[in-house]
Structures are given as C-alpha cells and as structure tokens.
Amino acid sequence: MTHDTARPRIGRPTTVLDSPDARALARFYERLLGWDVIADEPDWAQLAEPGGPGRLSFQTEGAYERPQWPTRPGRPQMGMHLDLEVDDVERAAAHAEAVGAVLAPFQPQPDVRVCLDPAGHPFCLWARD
C-alpha cells in the first residue's frame, strides 16, 4: 500500500451523539458503560474507556429530534446506532433499563436487545456465541 505524503495525519474517530442535553446523555452513558468523563462543558461532553481506545462524545443540538425505531417514512431516521458487546444480553438489558434506557417495543432478533437511550438513540446489546 502506498501512502500519499501530502495527506495529513488523521486520528482515530470518535462517535458523537447529538441530544437536547449533552451532559445528561453523557451521564447516562457513563452509568451504562462505566467509562470516565474526560470533557464536561455546557454543550459538549466526552467519555473515555478506562485503559482503552474507546471514546464517545455528546453535543447539544437545539433543533434535535428523536430518531424513530423502527424507521418510518417521513420521520427522523436513526442514521446510526451503537452495537455493544456484552457477556449476558438479559442482564445487560436489565442494567441498561436500571440506568435509564427503555427497551424498544420492536425487537428484530431474538438474541439481541434493542434499547433506546434517554435521547431516543437506539443501541443494541449482543453477545458472542
């Protein structure tokens, strides 16, 4: 593979979730994942996986509209979702609900749980066989 020497270094991407309240959504994911808060500003927050490369960021969006799950024509699309690998799907789903998630009414697969975070972003909990 050849590298273009004119290309600048581009670092590891982080996922950024929009919400009506960046700090509140970051606190939810802090409780869900057990990650560390590394940025906490009025309209921006970021979590980091302890000892790992993972980052998850949140920004306040004044015109935020909750995405729809499942997707429906003419409604805000989810655009993306998080897949979170867990040891036990049922225990992880119970934990997610205990910290503020809602189990989505539509579950497309029997071995995956789709949850909605407080801003309505879908995320999937799944375990390897």
TrEMBL record:
> What organism does this protein naturally occur in?
Streptomyces radicis
* Domain of life of the organism encoding this protein: Bacteria
Q: Which Pfam families match?
A: Glyoxalase_6
Q: Report domain VOC positions.
A: 9-129
Q: Which InterPro entries does UniProt cross-reference here?
A: Glyas_Bleomycin-R_OHBP_Dase (IPR029068), Glyoxalase_6 (IPR041581), VOC_core (IPR037523)
Segments carrying the region annotation (Disordered) are 51-79
Query: What's the name of the protein?
Result: VOC family protein
